[in-house]
Design brief:
The structure is a single chain. By secondary structure, the protein is an alpha/beta fold. It contains 17 helices and 13 strands. Strands 4-5-13-10-11-12 form a 6-stranded mixed β-sheet, with helices on both faces. Strands 8-7-6-9 form a 4-stranded parallel β-sheet, with helices on both faces. α5 packs parallel to α6, α11 crosses α13 and α14 packs across α15. The chain is globular and about 75 Å long.
Length: 452
Amino acid sequence: MAYGAWFQCIEGCPERYPLDKVIYRCPRCGELLEVRHDMDALRATSGGEWRRIWDRRYRSTERPYGSSVWGKKELVCPAVRDENIVSLYEGGSNLYRASRLGSGIGVDELWVKLCGNEHTGSFKDLGMTVLVSVVNQMVADGRKIIGVACASTGDTSAALAAYCAAAGIQAIVFLPRDKVSTAQLIQSIAHGALTLSIDTDFDGCMRLITEICAREEIYLANSMNSLRVEGQKTVGIEIVQQLDWEVPDWIVIPGGNLGNVSALGKGFLEMRSLGVISRLPRIACAQAALANPLYRSFLAGFKEFHPVTAGPTAATAIRIGNPVSVRKAIKVLAAFDGVVEEASEDELADASARADRTGLYTCPHTGVALAALEKLVRRGVIRRNERVVVISTAHGLKFSEFKTRYHEGTLPAVDPRRANPPLCVPAEYGAVRDAVLAAVSNRPPAVSNRGS
């Protein structure tokens, strides 16, 4: 069966645009577009049959369906021909039962979706495979595109660079100078992206990238391009699939540019429309207190929204004061009885360190989500007996500087209550024995000098 998909305005303007058209906003009202699917054609297959199809394809070696994104191709981007799909076997990341962590927080059933286990170390791979595949098809069909560009706080640029390298397409990356980790910066450099380090913040980079893409034959890869959302929405489908098609009670997700919140909601709404699930989870969006425009709007009942100037936060990937997808995110939160919570620098660092002590290795953005979860549990918004999934957006190895500074005690506005610096001891058995026994018996060590 042929399945159709097209761009259409999120506010309901009637015009439709093909997915290979270079367009990001509605020409009539200026709002963002979204990808709409022919749901009647998709509903010709029952929800139970879709579950069986997706289970059969999951992590298989059948190209392209072994990718957990392209295993849902009919609901993602049916127009891309298989030979033009650019895939790095994305999706299928661990859904980890975090029993020890949940017990400490006060949640009996806590799961962590480890999106940092993706190819480039973040959930951004899920959307980038779709966007770069569409561009690859456009190029194959003779369209002139001299590059694909994004503004980034580090993870989007890494994903764009890797997928463009796989396709042989030039990636162009705008990064705010000195505001991304070294590990994130080197990813785009290593993959051959043209990398511009610009003396501004993310919002400034976003303004510049939008202008150059409008004037030149350069394709925009930020989340205002709704092709990205189609890949990112599969994280919600995959969570339910990994839970044997049962819907969790809550999903907690960090929010910066808010494309992830929008994508998560879209996936669940489409699953319900197809009869794959019968109910929706509640969604909690977590923001850093120094970059919290959605949280402020939530406190006012979403009656108004005002951008902010994002302050310096360890959660660099969500240091965004004027999120592009705010209208989409607010619509999703309204449909999912959602809430928004914030986390201070001390709260996010402590939550990340607590998680690490249970075997995780969390990025600071996951720390924001975990800190928000703790606060929502303490207030009784999330109850102990509810099934909760926290989306961990990136791998902690991208942020080892953050972790090093935590354990050194040099993060600003952070009390490192769980710091665990190494003990410096002489190479003598007695001194080593005394230090080990003192530590394991919780006695003050005889060796007083701590540090690396």
